[in-house]
């Protein structure tokens, strides 16, 4: 059985999050959380939140508590989000207004109870 967690509009760069997603893909949740706890990047908190939520979703679907070592990360990806969501402006050259551009990403984590 599979469960998915989607986090949208996270204020982190897609490349920074994707770097962590590559580390946890294919591991069980226990190993993935251990790997993320040893990292020092601030994006690890968002990825840990997504992993924990996906594990909780699977636990609800199965109707029982599950062991972290028996849940595997099947898919973990970070997609690019909107760049111009903020409606603020910086001063540009010659009196022009230059809009803020902030990196955002959408995070998707799929976990399964059997290793496939």
SSE blueprint and pairings:
Layout: E1 2-10, H1 14-24, H2 29-37, H3 44-62, E2 72-80, E3 89-91, E4 97-99, E5 105-112
Antiparallel strand pairs: 1-5, 2-5, 3-4
Helix pairs in contact: 2-3
Descriptive overview:
This protein is α+β, with helices and mostly antiparallel strands. It has a single domain (2-112), classed as Ribosomal Protein L22, Chain A. Helix content is 34%, strand content 28%. It is built from three helices and five strands. The protein has helices at 14-24, 29-37, 44-62; strands spanning 2-10, 72-80, 89-91, 97-99, 105-112. The strands form two sheets. It has a three-stranded antiparallel sheet with strand order 1-5-2. β3 (89-91) and β4 (97-99) form a beta hairpin. α2 (29-37) runs antiparallel to α3. The longest helix is centred in the middle third of the chain and has 19 residues, at 44-62. The chain starts with a strand and ends with a strand. The mean pLDDT is 91.
Structure keywords:
116 residues, alpha+beta, 3-stranded antiparallel beta sheet, two-stranded antiparallel ribbon
Outline:
The protein is of the alpha+beta class and 116 residues long.
Please state how the strands of the largest beta sheet are arranged side by side.
1-5-2
Shape: elongated
Distance between the termini: 11 Å
Topology as a string of helices (H) and strands (E):
EHHHEEEE
Number of helices: 3
Q: How large is the share of residues in beta strands?
A: 25-35%
- CATH H-level superfamily: Ribosomal protein L22/L17
- Output the radius of gyration: 17 Å
Instruction: Flag low-confidence runs.
Output: none
How would you classify the quaternary structure?
single chain
Q: Look at the helices and sheets and give the structural class.
A: alpha+beta
Mean pLDDT level: 91
How would a crystallographer describe the biggest sheet? Answer: 3 strands, antiparallel
> What is the CATH domain class?
Alpha Beta
Q: How many domain regions?
A: 1
